[in-house]
């Protein structure tokens, strides 16, 4: 049991999927897992363990932003026997060729977060995905007929930027999409020797202004869920 996760030892699988939205965790448990058991309701941040294709897997909401995912990921990494964390989230496209509902695998995460500047005394650290998980996700996606886009994402601390053109500085350097947790997750995974990967689905485009509804984000982005669930060991 840890401060924010109410599970006993053995109740959390070695592979944990982490959506930002706890209701997405509930949706996955109800629609994809067999024999799902809810192990956490603390702060409404649902966590479930069940079976997918006979493999034990957990799904734990992370909340939004680096501070929130850092609490849950740290507790999973230090208080439970978790070996793989796969974030499954939504993102905004920063590139014309990255379309709504495309699946993006985050090879690395640029960021504007002060957390890593403090951690590395003003120097820059490059948060990077586990190559093992990245390769596996790419191969699983291909086997499901999904052509995943692979590259750099931006993890931002700010959803509503003062300057609405701010994203263009990242676009010019080929960053594929923006979200709010991956740099924190990859840094903690490196610190604790855990494998981590982010798989995100494009929910809106900063390039075209297209957007999907909250209900669609919660329930219809199932390709990334299937890729991540298929990676359970
Ligand atoms: O859909 P999730 O996983 O929450 O991810 C994205 O959506 C939230 C912002 O709406 C941020 O958490 C961002 O990273
Ligand atoms: O952080 C996020 C998530 C989805 N879409 C965005 O524009 N930003």
Describe this structure as you would to a colleague.
By secondary structure, the chain is of the alpha/beta class. The chain has one domain: Rossmann fold (3-Layer(aba) Sandwich), CATH 3.40.50.1580. The protein is built from eight helices and nine strands. Helix 2 (66-79) runs parallel beside helix 6 (182-192). 1-O-phosphono-alpha-D-ribofuranose is lined by residues 19-21, 64, 89-90, 159, 179-181.
Features:
binds 1-O-phosphono-alpha-D-ribofuranose, Rossmann fold, 8 helices, binds uracil, 233 residues, alpha/beta, 9 strands, five-stranded mixed β-barrel
Summarize the structure.
The protein is an alpha/beta fold and about 230 residues long. The protein has one domain (about 15-230): Rossmann fold.
